Amino acid sequence: MAYRVLIAQFMHETNTFSKLPTTLDDYRRRFLVEGEAMVPKFKGTKNEIGGYIDAAAKYGWEPVYAVAANATPSGKLTRETWETIRDRIAGAARDAGRLDGICLSLHGAMVSETEDDAEGALLELLRGIVGPDVPIAATLDLHANATVRMARHANVLLSYRTYPHIDGYERAVQAAALVQAAMDGTKQPRCLLVQPAMLEGADHGRTTQPGLMRDLLARADDYEKEPGIDAVSIQAGFTWADIPYTGPSVAVSHEPAAEARARAIAAALVDEIWRRRDESSSDYRTVAEGIAAARAKSDGKGPLVLADGTDNPGGGGYNDTTPVLQALLDAGIANVAFGTIYDPATVRQAMAAGVGAEIEVALGGHTDESMGKPVRARAVVKMLSDGLFRNDGPMNAGVETNMGPTAVLRIGGVDVVTISNRIQTIDLQVFLSQGIDPRAKDVVVVKSVQHFRAAYAPIAREIVLVDSGGICSPDISRLTFAKLRRPIWPLDGVNDPYAGMKAR
Ligand SMILES: [Zn+2]
User: 105-144: buried (b, 16+ CB within 10 Å) or exposed (e) per residue?
Assistant: First the structure.
């Protein structure tokens, strides 16, 4: 008899410092796909659901597709949003009849108006529905603020091992294999999690160069080869969340007899994260330094890629801050592609005027003027579109992205991709789909801090990451934490990674 396995995705990286609540419409703008419609949407993609679909075919499962929901990072999920999607997954589990396993794709840093640990609450709910014997595996983002509650109610937690995250498919396949083994009875995985008294750590998970995170992952790979150790995951955490659970963590999924060894592995990795807590490869520069680099011509070596990292919508940035755009215009830098500015009102203005029209715009800067005022300029409408494209990858290859109604506006020497849905610039199609070849530009601006590197590093002559004063600032002294567990490094005088743990 075929195993019946529930498959669902519910993802959000919640920046609790954002003033923009996350609504069901925000999910619909990225995707909110129910039931069997998940199969045509994700089959053949490198999304986690693409991995689960292939695994279901490989093992001959009878999959029960619940929902696939993902939204661009922003503020807390409204109560309605959280409960609606949670209840679709829980309802699918209740209505499934016999269920032999559950495969989830989660983020691990989702916060709702009513739940600081939304994934923990979801896993606890599902565990209550299916009971203790049905294996539950969940993939997580490498930036999960993972919790002991998640580990208690899941059998397996598996986070990405790449940043940019290009292994969602592979992690889902790995999770599915463990669920299959658990259903067959050849494995009995359970999960433990250790979170040190650290707000930041593991170099925010950067894996694009040799260093701490790669060293940690190499050790995790070795540990996974040991008997009784099923999976070792390192979460770097997501700093911009004022909840008790923010920060790095280590999850070890293990066989019952290997619990002591699993604890030792988690402790060894936590100790290493603690010992190397000052290591950071972050290389933020000022906007002025970025402009100085932008003055050089490409000489056929490809564009300078300016990454406006602190307005990264992938971390909850508003996607409409203007200091970089204003500075490029003030400096008269030409042959620039700028992707993107979120400004639906200006898109509507451009659509009313039509291609070729010249319009007066007040572009961007509308969400929080303290992060830069709107850019007031004359703009030529170069192109109008529905803003839909399919990602070339490597990240999310094959998955559709919806920028919403989109206008390319030429201001001075800058082509600004102006959009109606916030999206992180991770794919070359942000420009190519809008008639702009980023390889032919002297300067390309992306709203991203790290993910853009997968597609843009190969075409860039140089990459400069700038801090334009957006909400995703690396300067944690700009953030006010009220709910965070204390004491915690580096905010408090903490002398060991387990400080305060007995009290908690
Ligand atoms: Zn991430």
Answer: bbbbbbbbeebbbbbbbbbbebbebbeeebbbbbbbbbbb
Cα of 144 from ligand 1 centre, angstroms: 7
**Is the predicted pLDDT of residue 504 greater than 70, yes or no?**
no
Instruction: State pLDDT tens for residues 287-313.
Output: 999 999 999 877 789 999 999 999 999
CA dist 96 → 61, 82, 89, 130 (Å): 14, 21, 11, 10
Reduced to 3 states (helix: H, G, I; strand: E, B; else coil), residue 463 is strand
With contact defined as beta carbons under 8 Å apart, do 322 and 312 qualify?
Answer: no
| Residue 229 reports pLDDT greater than 90 | yes
Give the whole-angstrom CA distance, residue 471 versus residue 179: 39
Identify whether the C-beta of residue 380 lies closer than 8 Å to the C-beta of residue 363. no
Q: Is 218 exposed, middle or buried (0-12, 13-18, 19+ CB in 10 A)?
A: exposed
Amino acid at 341: I
Quote the percentage of the chain above a pLDDT of 70. 99
206 C-alpha vs ligand 1 centroid, how far in Å? Answer: 10
Quote the pLDDT of residue 477. 86
Which pair of tokens denotes residue 345? 């009102």
Per-residue pLDDT at 296: 81
State the Rg of the chain over Cα: 23
In the reported structure, the alpha carbon of residue 334 is separated from the centroid of ligand 1 by a whole-number distance in angstroms of: 33
Q: 0.85 exceeded by the pTM?
A: yes
- pLDDT for residue 467: 95
CB within 8 Å of 503: residues ≥ 6 apart: none
- Reported confidence tier of residue 502, pLDDT bands at 50, 70, 90: low
Question: What's the 385 CA to ligand 1 centre distance in angstroms?
Answer: 29
Q: 359 C-alpha to center of ligand 1: Å?
A: 38
Let me know: does 251 contact 259? Beta carbons within 8 Å. no
CA of 165 to the centre of ligand 1 (A): 7
Residue 47 alpha carbon to ligand 1 centre in Å: 14
